[in-house]
Amino acid sequence: MRLRAVLFDMDGTLLDTAPDFIAICQAMLAERGFAPVDDKLIRDEISGGAKAMVSAAFAMSASAPEFETLRLEFLERYQKDCAVHSKLFEGMEQVLVDIEKSKLIWGVVTNKPVRFAQPIMEQLGLAERSAVLICPDHVTRSKPDPEPLLLACRMLDLDPASVLFVGDDLRDIQSGRDAGTKTAAVRYGYIHPHDNPDHWGADVVVDQPLDLRRVLDNALCSC
Predict the structure, then answer these.
(1) Structure confidence by residue, pLDDT tens digits, 54-70
(2) Which residue, among 170, 166, 168, 196, has the nearest Cα to 182 in the 3D structure?
(3) pTM of this prediction?
(4) 8 A C-beta contact, residue 7 and residue 172
(5) Given pLDDT bands bounded at 50, 70 and 90, which one contains residue 223?
(6) 107: helix, coil or strand?
(7) 96 phi/psi in degrees, rounded to 5
(8) Cα separation of 11 and 214, whole Å?
(9) Spatial distance between the Cα atoms of 101 and 99, rounded to a whole number of angstroms
(10) Environment class of residue 95 by beta-carbon count within 10 Å: exposed (0-12), middle (13-18) or buried (19+)?
(11) What is the mean pLDDT of residues 89-95?
């Protein structure tokens, strides 16, 4: 079936949002008199959300009495500063331009709540280019469940088989596979050191955003 659309996970796939997460964690540490931690320590835990990042930064169990206060402070700070340093991954703008020139459409399916995702898309000038933004707020079950991708396909009036879903987490590939889309895993994203995209069962695995141009060319040429 002819490729009609490309859907992206947000954090670690379409956008490099790590710098904002890292800046917030380091600021919280500094204000409490703690030394900064290695940025990679935080980056490696991004896929686990605020809980995982705060736990790593403060070397603290989620069951610690003060943990929830720190987690809520992290989210409050992120609400205000969610798009200070975030940007498209290098090469991703060219990929989006290629998609648009090929008369394909693209959108975002993310597990990031809409209160963060929508402002980021708007501040980076992507909201008007993206055909759809699906967040956990729009569904009853988030990725790895197929519901978010199936909703995106319904909203775009597309057969899932005509869609490529790109992600940096096993949950993305599971969601895409169960929804019936083609899947591409990326090695450049926020992947835990003990994880390996080659083992996720994606249709293709790429090292960098520009490699997606080849994937798109192959998909369009095979139609």
Answers:
(1) 999 999 999 999 999 99
(2) 166
(3) 0.95
(4) no
(5) low
(6) strand
(7) -65, -40
(8) 22
(9) 6
(10) buried
(11) 98
Q: Quick one: which H or E segment has residue 181?
A: none
Res 82 pLDDT > 90: yes
Q: How far apart are the first and last CA of the chain?
A: 7
- Active site amino acids: 9, 11
Provide the residue type at 58 as one letter: F
Contact of 143 with 175, CB cutoff 8 Å? yes
Spatial neighbors of 157 by CB under 8 A, at least 6 apart, are none
Q: Are 173 and 167 in contact (CB under 8 A)?
A: yes
| Phi, psi for residue 208 in degrees, rounded to 5 | -150, 160
Note the pLDDT of residue 192.
87
Whole-number Cα distances in Å, 114 to 66, 106, 111, 139, 199: 27, 18, 9, 11, 30
Cα–Cα distances in angstroms (integers) from residue 7 to residues 20, 60, 112, in the given order: 23, 35, 15
